[in-house]
Amino acid sequence: MALEETVQRSRHGGREARRRERAQKSAGPGRPYISRNIPTYDILSEENLLKIEAAADRILAETGIEFRDDPEALDHWRRAGARIDGLRVTFEPGMLREILRFAPAEFIQHARNPANSIRIGGNSVVFAPAYGSPFVMDLDRGRRFGTLQDFQNFIKLAQSSPWFHHSGGTICEPTDVPVNKRHLDMVYAHLRYSDRCFMGSVTAEERSEDSIEMARIAFGRDFVEENCVILGNVNVNSPLVWDGTMTKSLRAYARANQAAVIVPFILGGAMGPVTNAGAIAQSLAETMAGCALTQLERKGAPVIFGNFLSSTQLRTGSPTFGTPEPAIGSMVVGQLCRRLDLPLRCSGNFTTSKLPDAQAMTEGTMSMLAAVHCGANFILHAAGFLDGLLSMSYEKFMLDADLCGALHTYLDGVTVDDNQLAEGAFAEVGPGNHFFGSAHTLANYETAYWDSETADNSPFEQWELAGSDDAATRANRLWKQRLREYEAPAMDEGLDEALKDFVARRKSEMADAWY
Amino acid sequence: MALEETVQRSRHGGREARRRERAQKSAGPGRPYISRNIPTYDILSEENLLKIEAAADRILAETGIEFRDDPEALDHWRRAGARIDGLRVTFEPGMLREILRFAPAEFIQHARNPANSIRIGGNSVVFAPAYGSPFVMDLDRGRRFGTLQDFQNFIKLAQSSPWFHHSGGTICEPTDVPVNKRHLDMVYAHLRYSDRCFMGSVTAEERSEDSIEMARIAFGRDFVEENCVILGNVNVNSPLVWDGTMTKSLRAYARANQAAVIVPFILGGAMGPVTNAGAIAQSLAETMAGCALTQLERKGAPVIFGNFLSSTQLRTGSPTFGTPEPAIGSMVVGQLCRRLDLPLRCSGNFTTSKLPDAQAMTEGTMSMLAAVHCGANFILHAAGFLDGLLSMSYEKFMLDADLCGALHTYLDGVTVDDNQLAEGAFAEVGPGNHFFGSAHTLANYETAYWDSETADNSPFEQWELAGSDDAATRANRLWKQRLREYEAPAMDEGLDEALKDFVARRKSEMADAWY
Question: What ipTM was reported for this prediction?
Answer without folding.
Answer: 0.94
